[in-house]
Protein 1
Amino acid sequence: MTPATLMTLDLLAAVVTAAAWLGSGVAAASRRPRAALAVLGVAILASLTRVGVVVALSGAGWWFVQEKVVVALPLLLVTGVTATVVAVPRLTRAADPQPSVVVALLAAGYAAVGGLAGTLLLGYPATLGSALAITAAVAGATLLTWRIVAGPGRSPRIAIAVTAIAGVAGVGLAFVPPPTMDDGRDQSLTAAMGYHGGGARLAVAGQEPGRPVTSFRGPDSPSPGGVVRRYSLTARTATVTLSSGQKVAAWTFDGKVPGPPITANVGDLIEVRLRNADIASGVTLHWHGYDVPAGEDGVPGLTQEAVMPGQEFVYRFLADRQGTYWYHTHEVSSLGVKMGLYGTLLVGPPPAGVDLALPVHTFAGRTVVGDRDQPLDRQAAPGTPVRLRLINTDDTPHRFTLSGTPYRLSSVDGTDLNGPGELGRVGLRLPAGGRYDLTFTMPADRMVVLRTDDRTTSVRLSPGSSAGAPEEDTAGWPDLDLLRYGTAAPAPISGSSRFDRDFTLVLDRGLALSGGRPMYAYTVGGHAFPSIPTEMVSSGDLVRLTVVNRSRDIHPWHLHGHRVLVLSRDGRSPSGSPLWLDTFDVRPGEVWQVAFRATNPGLWMNHCHNLVHADEGMALHLAYEGVTTPFHGAHGG
Amino acid sequence: MRRVYAVLAGLMMAAVVVQWYLAAVGAFDKPQDSDSFALHGLNGMMVIPVLSLLATIAAAVSKVPGRLIGLTILPLGLIIVQVLIIALGSAFDDSSGNTTPLSLAVLGLHAINGMAIMGVSASVFNQARKLLKAAPEPVAQAS
């Protein structure tokens, strides 16, 4: 069974466990000893099942079971054994259950509920604070039950006092701020020393003269032989008309959605003057997947201030790598990108034949490719080389299918794959923010059809008027596993490399403080932006990121300024082409290990590219030692 | 103390009514984004649980019947079930994270359980009011 299935099973087992213990207690309270005994049997079985599921889940990694092993199961064990010992002899005598039986059974029920609440509401990791708070809540409920069931008597003052102190201490500990940084050197040491370990490192770094992130800018002139590509983009609100005539109120660059395509050849200097006409919340330009100097990265509050109405900002960077990329605003991006502030960035030389950039976006519930919410029909002479550049500008993955011709997935996130083989009858799952280039030679006798999510026909390429469209049900086609596609080749980094920095990001949902404000957030290591420790690296470091998803949502992980090499998924290395990605989907229950060489000094966002999740906490910074920011740094969404 | 309890029970019921209102606000918000259900989430995850907890403490202190104390904390328990329904429902989403008929069948229970929370908090408020009318502040000195 997959970890995701086990996570679901664990939730179900926890629910049945809680319901059975509580049910047994209620049956005992209503003087039905036989029913209570029968349900108690179910409770014991369910509890043991839950333990079994947790043991199985632990095989996927300690992160998936930490809060269960440390808090939920010990609580359940103590209360469950107590309840069994107290209740079984008395219930088998079928006498009127005594108050002690009722209280013991309900206490086990409260413990089961407490553990479940910890998993659902607090998430990873369980801390001393959360353990104290849950234990105190269970103890408090038990004391109250005793008071109700046994009637007025002498109050157990000491127990009440201890419970109250534990509860207050547990809740209070939640407000202790987390360490401000993680140096990725020694996980156990970092965790044990917390703030002090990181603080000591920062002090040393602080003695060196800091270099502001704003000083890392692009060059003034292109490479020899290159030209300057000047663009001017004005962000403004507009009503755009899709191909069907549907009108959409949008935020646009130059009144168009997507914004004007930015193209260049390797060696050119790209210069983009961004103006803001009337986007009240401000705009920036972030070059998704393009490893520009940090000062050109367009993260408000970190590398620049947001460009407010009437203001402008000039971005300048060298086109040093060809491929398919895109740009988008990074200011309130969860709304801004959704409303249309994005466009394509293509670095050539452009290939011969048909070359289509296809940014896929959802407007008003319609799947829109470019500015079309209807199929794009094009003629292509038989034998013409065709390149389709798929760009997912949404928050969730899209599944593409191409029928009518064999093809190759020749490039992912702008990087060519090694030895990509011919594909047919497969689904291509593209993460939010990711790009796939599909290449093929136009067939003579058939239409080639690109479908999105197995329901929307997006592109129809026809070799002539007589060719028919392939009528195929693509929904049953299996997903291509990128980690097994293409030919293996030596890569500069492998799992056995010696890493200078090693960071683990555990993704979950839970109550967390986001800048002092409590919210039910998308969390990393139990914290929410901007309270997640900043990952510190030095120039030249070899850095490994382990990204663990124990939540129930897909998280497309995106590091700014660096491509990452995939080392493994769920412990298995890729058997196909080396994969250099800037956005990778970490699905529920998955563990990805990726690595990169820290060669682009600056301050960078490291976040979930489901921008709603990023907006609700799932974002952090990766900082090079000695780089400072003159900005407040309080957001970057 | 029973007056405090009745007031807290009333506030809890009002918060649940507001919660339904906010659910509709979120459902009709266009475009759907992170803020669509922000208030619904805030009210449901913070306001109602805290009111349920405070009301339960007030109920225990003012020595109302045990069953009513249990009923007063029940909205908090049912909110855990609300989160659970979303968690289990999303577990049945397809691999793109889109809903499936099965996940929708589970997720729809969120509304049914929400009605249970409404019913329980209304019942709590009614009983708290009845206790207040029957014997205004009977144990104020004792507590």
Protein 2
Amino acid sequence: MLMSKPKIAILQFPGVNCEYESKLACEQAGMEAEIYRWNSGEPLDTYDGFLLPGGWSYEDRVRAGAIAAKDPLLEQLREQAALGKPVIGICNGAQILVESGLIPNIDNTLRVDFALAPNINPRVSGYYCTWIHVMNSSKKQTAFNRTMKYEEVLPLPIAHGEGRFVTRNKELIDTLIKNDQIAFRYCNEEGNVINEFPVNPNGSLYSIAALTNPEGNVMAIMPHPERAMEKRQVPGFQGSYEESRQHGPGSKIFFSMKEYIEERRKK
Amino acid sequence: MSSDIENQTISGTIPVSDMPDDELSRFLKENSISLTLEEVRSLPEKLGRNPTLTELHIFNIQWSEHSSYKSSKKLLKQLPTESPKVILGPKEDSGIVELGTFKGKRYGIVVSHESHNHPSQVVPYEGAATGVGGILRDVLCMGAEVIATGDPLRFGDPFGKNKDRTRYIANAVVDGIASYGNAVGIPVLAGDVYFDACFDDNCLVNVVSLGLVKEEDIIHSYVPKEAAEEEYEVVLVGKATDNSGFGGAAFASLILDEEEAEINKGAVQVPDPFLKNMLIKATRRAFEVIREKKIKVGFKDLGAGGIMCATSELGSAAGFGMELDLDKVHVSMHNLPPYVIACSETQERFAWVVPKSFTQELLKIYNEDYDLPNIAEGAKATVIGKVTREKNYVLFHNGQKVCDAPIDEVTSGVLYDREQKPMEWNEKDPDIPEPVHYKEIILKILRHPTVASKADIYKHYDTEVQGRAVFRPGEADAGVMAPLPDEKVGVALSVDSNPKYGRISPYWGAVNAVFEAMRNVAATGAVPTAITDCLNYGNPEKPEAFWQFAEGVRGISDAARKISYYNTDLPVPVVSGNVSFYNESAAGKAVDPSPVIACIGVMDDFSKARGIQLLREGSYLFLVGERKHELGGSIYYEIHGGTGSSVPKPDFETAKKQIWSVIDAISTGKVLASHDISDGGLAAALAEMAIGPEGKGNLGVEVQLNDDLPTSTVLFSESPGFILEVSPEDAREIEKVFSRHGVDVFKIGEVTSSQKITIKHNEKEVCSIPLEEAKEAWLNGLSEALK
């Protein structure tokens, strides 16, 4: 029997602005995607996975992601995440997942352990948009790294003013390492983590670019894989038209989600 | 509206025809109306009676320079606006140029170009942000998806006597642009920045925006003809109206007075990118429904002149009248006078004209589906009136009829013949002895904030959102994007105008602005397809300033016609534009004549686009465009304290052939990198190619130039030209492309692994600059100027 394509809901909170390219990214990785208006009232259980796109949900009122984290829709999302469905929050979506306690959710209490603080950048204050490198720093397979090797390096763009993962309790880092929850770390092109600007573009603790929950099905990632779906998008790319349209580095994360969903279905 | 209200006569007329001059002057001043006495005295004839206060305010705005183009309109008629590539010329809120036909559908690139100079000088953050906000509405309201912006900026001297204010303005303008565009999610594709003392009291903040639309989906800014048969309503959408920006159009038409700056702040609007984002989403949904159901509508942005200007133009452009009840306008302040409700420039608003049968569905999209009233205080969509078949513009307020004027009189404006008086430019080229150390001069030029890398500005902007980027600002001479996800087609955008050329010669300044914008587009491989002009000048009531304007328009017209569209004699049409006069301080100091040109390029295959960074050791460097003694307005003269007079005077035929041959050369796929020669001259252009946009270049150049010119002229003259990097095995083929067009191309050197910029002139080495030193200067010049 031919299986239907995995179907992803792109959660469109008021003020987000990456929903259309996020939808396209899912489609380019062979999934279906629908933009789910935050107040549509439709159930979430018909979807196989969820994407919280970047932007300025609720105008970043209070703090980036803070209001959406309290949106009634998040309650439903938690239930879906608990079923093991993949949830990826990109940029503002990552901020929402951290504000909601879904990330890192170390002991499954949804305690808010981390924050995404204003960038520390000696060159450009506030919002900063550039291309950086990250490495897959999780040894275990998660929903998001199945298509890449351990410590594989991906070029991705960042575009944020508050992307610095911080926590009051630095011992948590050890726990995250132990749990293999540090999904991506900023590194240079050769794959060396150098915990200073510009390799670490925002001063993030331990050069963290993305965290997952302990189960590895929820991920908060500050860089934008959906803007790196084709090779042409990577600065400095040279090649024919056909080559320029080939899958870009960010697509690996989306293909991994697809693979993860398909494997879950088989079980 | 009950019929007894509709039938009532006008109330509250002002007896302007009986008032003596001094009394009328006083009355106008008390009411902040800047119409002349003659203009006011012409109103009773147009209206058949004395005007109301509301009508006086309406004509005050409509006859302002900003709204009526009263000084400029006649001259602007000489610009070429037609070509087979034009889908919509400069008639509505934006122009539309053909992108191509894909899967049987013709697509257009929507383009608009505006200035927000005065507001940005007074309150730079809000001024720049609302400048972006306004242009996005202009593009969106054509039925388009907004896909890019470009930001030409002109600031004062960051090291001069107003350096603190200049740096504050520059940083706040960049923040304002970034905060608005980033939040709405529109990538920045292009921009340029000049610093000069002539902008100390008047910065220029222009903004260009591009949209994407299928031709069949275009929505026009006028009432559809179906309104003759069917009842049409006027729906106001967006932020609740307040008094912000009341008189903004009139403000834009005044000279900035430092002492009145505090008062003028009231004329600047308040930006709300969050609401704009939601309005765009909801409007996108409205477009979908309208297309599905094939409903005929009109849609217009509310900009200068607010509700009044938008609704009167919606009606008059199609021969209809309007009847609006200002009490139905959702407001956020109580007791606003009718003329403020009608004319304030509150941001984030649009006006629809839709068949009454569709109104409720439209209201539901905004008010329920996208829930405007609950996500942004006071925002909503609401019916404020109807389209009428009588051609009058009628406003009610508190049950009184406060305006009832022939709608064509409201929109037709006034025209003036302004006096022109040529200005002599008497400065001669300075007599500068040949430098002893060229290296020091080159490093100084690279460090100059006008030449230095603009990365510290661009990195505030989201260049990646929407995922269409191919070349970002700084990576190539023009920004390049892939507008359609499944097509090869690429779009390029460049913005240009060198103020110092305009200072020396307003005609050649304009010609060079057009040529450079086209050159930058061609240097990526795209075909210059249309241009827009944002004409920033001084006070048109001064004959010298108006002459500068006239010369600028003549220059644009000549260049757009004579540097004709690729392989044809057709012009590169002007599809959109804006005139910004009164860029003058109270002390009477005007900005340099600044006709800022945006050029839109189209290319069949975006993957063939080329950037500026050198790619391959051992490849050849070719120079297109002979070096001449054209140092007037150069950075070289500037760092020696002069402007000079020998402005570049390109020959149109040569300019055209150079552009065509560069396009053809790049389309072979055999050009590795390409850069135009402009600010700083040949030496700066070579250094920039070696350094690379992010300073990641690791190759050097070894160049050998042989001619009879002084070395300083060869290195620093800003004669237009290109440098191309080509592999040795492809050199013959590229040379053939140029010879086919009869264009001279000179092999001037090679790319080396030595990481040095080495230049020899007539066999003598004149400089050998370690790449690291060049990088240090070029990458830090801007941040040193803006700290």
